[in-house]
Amino acid sequence: MTEPNAPYHAHIYYDPAERAAASALRDDLGKDPAILFVSPMADRPVGPHSIAQYEVHFLARSQDAIIAAIEPTGLRALVHPLTDDDLADHTTLAHWIGEPVELDLTVLDPPGHNKGVARFGGRGF
């Protein structure tokens, strides 16, 4: 069982035609007290993400509610924990909503060196 206070986040993906829906979801999630941080929208590929996206940070105990908020929008999303294994976080531990987006796995941190944990940890964990 996942620790309820374990750090999680979701990547919300969008193409230009979906930007308005993604922005509306971002605004809604930003009002949710379970959300710890919502990143700015990145209208270009960033890191392993091959299309525009933004991040939503939350704790494991809020995962079901976050997924339930994303699913009706029709947007694609990758929901995953933040562990010490960045590759597993984005693959075997990940939950996709909608059609998966191609990821560049070569840019992820090696196991045991997940810099995302430290960055995420700086957001109130």
Structure, described:
GO terms for molecular function: dioxygenase activity. This is Aromatic ring-cleaving dioxygenase-like protein. Pfam families: DOPA_dioxygen (PF08883). The chain has one domain (7-121): Alpha-Beta Plaits (2-Layer Sandwich). The chain is 26% helix and 22% strand. It contains 4 helices and 5 strands. Strands 2-3-1-4-5 form a 5-stranded antiparallel β-sheet, sandwiched between helices. The chain is globular, with a radius of gyration of 13 Å. It starts with 6 loop residues before the first strand and ends with a helix.
Percentage beta strand: 15-25%
CATH superfamily: DOPA-like domains
- Broad CATH class: Alpha Beta
Strand order of the largest sheet: 2-3-1-4-5
- What sequence of helices (H) and strands (E) makes up the elements? EHEEHEHEH
Tell me, what's the shape?
A: globular
Please, what is the average pLDDT? 88
> Ranges with pLDDT <50 over ≥5 residues?
117-125
Q: Count up the domains.
A: 1
Oligomer category:
single chain
What is the CA-atom radius of gyration, in angstroms? 13 Å
| Relative helix content | 25-40%
So how many helices? 4
Distance between the termini: 19 Å
Largest sheet: 5 strands, antiparallel
Q: Please count the beta strands (DSSP E, at least 2 residues each).
A: 5
Key terms for this structure?
DOPA-like_sf, oxidoreductase, Alpha-Beta Plaits, 26% helix, globular, Aromatic ring-cleaving dioxygenase-like protein, 125 residues, 22% strand, 4 helices, dioxygenase activity
